[in-house]
Amino acid sequence: MLYDQLLTRGGDAPVRVGLIGCGTFGRGIVAQALRVDSVRLVAVADADVAGAVRTIKAAGVAEVVEASAVAAAIDAARSGCIVVTGDAMIVPELDVDVVVEATGHPAAGAAHALAAIERGRHVAMVSKETDAVVGPMLKALADDAGVVYTAVDGDQHGLIMGLVAWCRTLGLEVFCAGKALDGEWGYDAGPGDTMGASVNVWNHGQTVRLAGEDAELMRPAGYGDGARMRDRRDTLLRAGLPGIGGWDLTELTIAANANGLDFDGATSTHSPVLRVTEIAQLMCPASDGGLLTRTPAVDAVRLVRRPDEAALAGGVFAVVRGDNRVIQWATRNENMQPGEDGRTLVILRPHHFLGMEAMWSILLAGRCAIATGASDYRPRWDRVLHVRRDFEPGETIGDDHSDDLVHRVAPARAIDGEADEVALPAHLAQGCRVARRLTAGSLVTPAAVELPTAGSAAALWSLRRRQDGRFGT
Hints:
alpha/beta; 8-stranded mixed sheet; 7-stranded parallel sheet; globular
């Protein structure tokens, strides 16, 4: 797509950007915003003001102005200086076109997005923790206000949305879309060995030597052989890798809600260990020799590859049906990695550039009032939690990186339903105190935690209730 031609239709004025959150993703946005002529970085808000100042100066800006009040910030911004503040609520008050929310904090992200929408600003939502729990409601409110609410290119859920839309626009039936997890396994024959006699497989300093029948696991899976190969690889290799992370499931939940996709597994993904050449063959319906019983699905893959094969970790994919001769001819001749029967093919997007790539979403929102995220964003699935150990009353529920929690998914349901049965969305539970003893394996429900009564956490719960009512979950 020639984005430059689309962007010129929105005029030539720079898009004025206010960034909230200057962490890993935010630093990428700062770096690129200062190098893109059609963007003007107006303000950066972060609790670590000194750190934000260092980030901006490291990107090549000699002078910034720190401000703790709206009037001072407005004056500094009008003079052309970049404003740095520790008060995120100042940013929507400035003369900006797009507010980029990148704190990674679910409750704060919702509060900042609401403030921006109320002030008539477009919102580029980087914080998937907010998006996964109340994104549909925030988009609905933005639609009502005549502004854009969008996920961003550069993170995997945003890229999955774009890839699925691209495929469907071309009339391709999407069977599965998803992401490649970090931590690929590499493999090759050991010294003096030939491939098939023995294989060394490694990941992050860990090496597994496979011989005999086990070495055959590295050969491409045959048609209809996917389930057996998946189970054997999982037994030998997957134990050395962490399972799918809460952050991964959060991104896949957003993509599922944005694209009308399902989770084929009851509570999670298959996330099989595959070669790139097997994705089209195995991430398709069982009737076509694959692993899926329900489509269209969202999932993840863990890859094994030789050192001379291209990596896909961090990339995204879509498996589609090619059921006419023209498409099948193209897949064979254009190296599109078709399945063994030639009816399925995989479209690969082998990279994501985090904050740098988000410029497209920012520019399209600010110049053209176009979202790169979902057009039909509905609460279909929630990220939910089980506890891995016993929790006592008064303990606090952790975040996506907590080893004390087991991360799962469940169909979205109203949080004020049967409190002992409804799974509480993970990012509503985050930071809440446990109200009653939870034994290992228990589902975290609304009745299991103390409900917040004030502050941004209470506001997040209120926003979720509005979403439940609006969408009838």
